[in-house]
Every structure is written in C-alpha cells, then in structure tokens.
Write a structure and sequence with these properties.
Layout (H helix, E strand, L loop, with lengths): L12 E2 L6 H9 L3 H11 L12 H10 E2 L4 E4 L2 E3 L3 H7 L9 E2 L9 H8 L3 H4 L14 E2 L1 H8 L19 H18 L7 E2 L3 H4 L4 E2 L1 H18 L1 E2 L5 H9 L3 H4 L4 H6 L16 H10 L28 E5 L2 E5 L16 H4 L2
Parallel strand pairs: 1-9, 5-8
Antiparallel strand pairs: 2-3, 3-4, 6-7, 10-11
Helix pairs in contact: 3-14, 7-8
Length: about 350
C-alpha cells in the first residue's frame, strides 16, 4: 500500500461541489429522442450517471489509497488501476484505440468559439466569461448561463435579441449547450464549480475518443489531492465509483455479459454499496477485505483482454487531457485484468 490509510491523519479530504444534478436531469428530459441519440453517441450510456449517488466516504478513502508515483490504487495486497478499455466498455463506447484520441488545444477558449456553438451574441457572452489569468487558458462560464437560454422545451422568444440569428437553429444550439454543460459538470469539473471552455474541443472533435482525456484528468486530480492531502475531485467521480465497484465481489454476481450489454450502468447504480461510512471506516473496510472479496477480472469485458500498457518512446501511456497531458502506467497493476498474476507480461503488451 502506498500509505497507511488506517491512520485517520493520513486520509485525504475532498471538497465536493454541488453541481446541480437535478437541473441537468430536468434538462435531459426536455430533449427529444434524436437529441438523446446524438449526445449518447459522444458520451456513451451516461444518463444513469445523473442518478448515481456518489459516496463521499468511499471517494476519500480511494484518494487516500492512490499512489501518485505509480498511478494506481494500493489497498493492502491489492493494486488496481482503471484502464481506458474498461472505461470505454462501461460507457459502451468503441475502443479508445479505434479512434484518434482528442488532443485539446488552447484556441477554442474564446467568446468567438462560444458564438459558433451557442449562437449567442458577443454582448451576452463576454460579461459571462471569467478569466482567472491574463490568457484564455482557464476561461470558464457558469451553468446558469447555459440553462437560462437552453434548458427549455421551446425557444425563449423574450430573449430572441440575445441570439445572433434569432430562433434559427436554436435546437441545434440547445444540444451543443447540453454537451458543453455535461462535459464541464460531470466529466471535467473544475475547482471553482464552473465550466471550463477547454471542454469544447473535446466535445466537438468528431471521430475522436474522449476516454484518454477522462482518464487523464482522473489520474492528474487523484495525484494532486493525494500529494496535497486535500482538494477538489476534478474528474468524473461517478465513473470512478462505478469502475471500482465493478471490481468488488459484492457486484460480481451481476457482471454477466447480458446484464452489462443491456444495462451497463442503469441497474448497477441502484445496487446498494456493501458498506457505508466515513472515509476512515471505508479505509478500514477495504483493508480488511480478503482477496476473495475482489473481482480481478470483470466479465463484462472482451473475452481476451489486450490492454495498452505502453507506447513507443514512453515507459507508460501518455494521456492528453483538458488541462495538459500526463502519463500513467497500467503495466504496474495488471493483476486485476486476469485471475493469475503469473501470466507472461509480453502476453498483455502490444
């Protein structure tokens, strides 16, 4: 284990924002079936995430078990690390390597880009954009701005003058606004609780996988919080919790290929956790969990796991994210991808 999390003084303290999940769920119900299909095509089977209750004690315990040097969870004798293949499968997206990963750039962080995707005038957008620095690097907007104009079932006629072309293409802009809001609220939340404009190139990069970016910010944020002993989880906490629970025997009885092919997240989020408590209680529970309590190889994955463990010229796998790139090293914790750790390493490498 990377640290002694049985000591309450060594536990990580996470500060969670109220991301107004109910407002996002209501917004989702206002969209049509075609809109739903368009959005799911990018983010995968995510709607149940808006119903998943995040256990803060569990997340703080997991952050305390995170080893920032090796980028894995070290819980007693157990080493676990989320892989891109697992995340993609949970969301029922194509393999992250069947598409080019998104490489975010700085250019789209501007009011001009928002005009393009939201159809709002510069006079409306410019006062709403917060820039903590002189550059656009950390520019952000509030969820309130997006819900004011787009969390509606019909075009807001009284606000028509705020749109460049009035009612024209408003429904398209409404879908764009939801995509930006979902990415900024659930997938890449910020410490300020606002929507970073850096999510825009990720959301609108068609034919490119968002999985590396999701995993990148998970690794980066966990490492930061672990080193500092506190922080705001700037990653998709719902997806991390779901992934972790999928490796507990408590959930293993439901990990049949049929169940996850049909339901994936939708029914799993309704299953009660095997334990409830604060971070210290969770840490002690996980430390006492025998090896038989872990599900090393999830059954909803492909018949033959072939995870990417390294890339040419890199010891690990470089991950591009919203706020830069980071690396992680899945080859250090591959035991959870097989029932035995004695398999030849070359078998798992590409």
């Amino acid at each position: 284990m990377a640290s002694s999390s049985s000591d309450p003084d060594s536990l990580v303290t996470l500060r969670f924002h109220d991301f107004r999940v109910e407002r996002m769920r209501h917004w989702w119900t206002l969209l049509g079936e075609d809109d739903h299909a368009d959005i799911v095509g990018i983010f995968g089977k995510f709607p149940p995430f808006m119903r998943l209750q995040v256990d803060r004690g569990l997340l703080e315990a997991l952050a305390s078990f995170w080893d920032p040097t090796h980028c894995c969870f070290s819980i007693g004798e157990v080493d676990l690390i989320p892989t891109m293949e697992e995340y993609a499968k949970l969301l029922q997206l194509d393999s992250p390597f069947s598409e080019t990963p998104v490489i975010p750039i700085q250019g789209p962080r501007s009011n001009r880009c928002l005009e393009k995707y939201l159809g709002l005038t510069t006079a409306v957008l410019r006062p709403e954009i917060a820039r903590p620095e002189a550059t656009w690097r950390k520019a952000n907007i509030s969820l309130d701005l997006l819900t004011k104009y787009f969390s509606r079932s019909a075009f807001p006629a009284r606000l028509a003058r705020d749109f460049i072309a009035g009612k024209k293409e408003w429904k398209k802009f409404r879908i764009n606004a939801f995509k930006i809001a979902f990415a900024g609220i659930f997938l890449f939340p910020t410490s300020a609780g606002r929507i970073d404009l850096g999510v825009i190139p990720i959301v609108f990069s068609e034919g490119r996988s968002i999985i590396p970016a999701i995993l990148c910010e998970t690794v980066r944020s966990l490492s930061f919080c672990r080193r500092q002993g506190e922080g705001v989880p700037m990653f998709c906490t719902q997806l991390l919790q779901l992934w972790f629970c999928s490796h507990l025997q408590h959930f293993y009885r439901l990990q049949t290929p049929y169940h996850f092919e049909r339901h994936t997240v939708s029914q799993t989020v309704q299953i009660a956790l095997p334990f409830t408590g604060d971070s210290r209680a969770w840490a002690l529970y996980l430390l006492d969990l025998p090896l038989s309590g872990w599900a090393w190889k999830v059954t909803w994955g492909p018949a033959s796991w072939m995870p990417w463990t390294h890339c040419a010229l890199f010891d690990g796998v470089p991950l591009p994210g919203v706020w830069g790139c980071t690396g992680y090293y899945p080859s250090l914790a591959l035991r959870h991808l097989a029932f035995s750790t004695r398999l030849a390493w070359a078998t798992w490498m590409r």
